[in-house]
From TrEMBL:
Topology within the bilayer: Single-pass membrane protein
Keywords for this protein: Membrane, Transmembrane, Transmembrane helix
Top-rank taxon, per record: Eukaryota
InterPro entries: ROH1-like
Protein name as annotated: Uncharacterized protein
Length: 353
């Protein structure tokens, strides 16, 4: 996708609220207008917060943790909005239900892929701990084992995770279905679809950044274009331009990883490698000691960052799963009503997949 032109500065910081009063489509009441404006204002603020002042923060594990927390908050917001809309499942258009369920199942697959990659990186930490343990000794054999552990760590970290590679296919599916279903006669439905569009855009963007970070490939990035009629469009465009541009600059040439903390560990490992290449005790003892200490410190920072990000991905998985289960539960209840056709038909179709 081509990169869009920078949008014009809107008169209102978060967009013109009176735009919702357009005669096209169903009329939005003051209450519905307020719900949608509050959702979009919060989303805009959240996207602005994700755009760091210091580019060095981009693709650090702490920034990725913040991005995942942002996604959790946005998905919690859409669940809260659905409750506030008081839109019974029996009134949902089948297309809306399909959109929600398709998004959720794809996101669960993506979460599983990210979790598998974080688990793989944590396994690399075990090799790193083994390396550090052997480096504490001063006899020859442990140094030989340390060299072996170092080589194993390098091979492990540079290997590819096929599940992360497959994320591109899932993200492409989400992009293909990003356009909103047509809403003709439901004001609540219009609010729901408009809010879900914002959720999809932020979700696809963050997940594509994660896929690029884990794979080390800028080809995983997606340059989504958003019309400036959305109150959060300017914040998103600024975030996308900043993050994607910096990542593409970072991933020029061959690199083992784009993750800042992992790259720091890899730098320390490469510094140590020639010192123990022959399996003998290093001649420059002080420099060697400092290098080992530096590797231990960076390894600990990596380990802590991976643990926190893993918890963030797990939380996102649970939020998506809870929302999906709640909808399916409501569909089951609706399907028992003989006067209601939509819930029963959709549930039957979903469960037959």
């Amino acid at each position: 996708m081509s990169r869009p032109q920078e949008p014009h500065q809107p008169f209102f910081h978060f967009g013109n609220p009176f735009r919702r009063l357009s005669p096209k489509g169903p009329y939005l009441s003051r209450k519905l207008l307020s719900l949608l404006n509050n959702f979009e204002k919060t989303l805009a603020e959240r996207l602005e917060k994700l755009n760091p002042n210091d580019k060095e923060e981009i693709l650090s594990l702490s920034w990725m943790k913040s991005a995942m927390e942002s996604l959790c908050e946005t998905h919690n917001d859409i669940n809260a909005l659905i409750t506030d809309l008081d839109l019974p499942v029996s009134d949902w258009d089948e297309k809306w239900i399909d959109v929600y369920l398709d998004i959720s199942v794809n996101l669960l697959d993506i979460c599983n892929a990210f979790s598998s990659e974080l688990s793989r990186l944590n396994q690399g930490n075990l090799l790193l701990q083994c390396l550090l343990h052997n480096l504490e000794s001063t006899c020859a054999k442990p140094f030989i084992r340390a060299r072996s552990s170092l080589d194993s760590w390098s091979r492990h970290i540079s290997s590819k995770n096929s599940r992360v590679e497959n994320c591109c296919t899932i993200l492409d599916k989400l992009v293909e279905s990003i356009d909103l279903p047509k809403v003709k006669n439901s004001a609540k439905g219009k609010v729901l679809m408009s809010a879900m569009y914002g959720v999809k855009v932020e979700t696809i963007f963050v997940c594509s950044v994660f896929a690029a970070a884990f794979s080390g490939s800028p080809q995983k990035l997606l340059d989504l274009e958003v019309a400036d009629k959305y109150a959060w469009a300017q914040a998103f465009t600024g975030l996308r331009t900043s993050i994607n541009g910096e990542i593409r600059n970072m991933l020029v040439g061959e690199r083992v990883t784009a993750l800042k903390e992992l790259e720091a560990v890899d730098t320390s490992v490469k510094k140590l490698h020639p010192m123990i290449q022959d399996g003998d005790e290093p001649v420059e003892a002080e420099a060697f000691k400092n290098s080992v200490s530096d590797l231990a410190m960076r390894g600990e920072k990596l380990s802590q960052g991976l643990d926190l990000l893993t918890k963030g991905v797990d939380s996102f998985f649970q939020i998506v799963l809870t929302g999906r289960d709640a909808l399916l539960s409501n569909l089951r209840l609706t399907g028992t009503d003989s006067d209601t056709k939509v819930g029963g038909n959709v549930l039957e179709r979903v469960l037959s997949r």
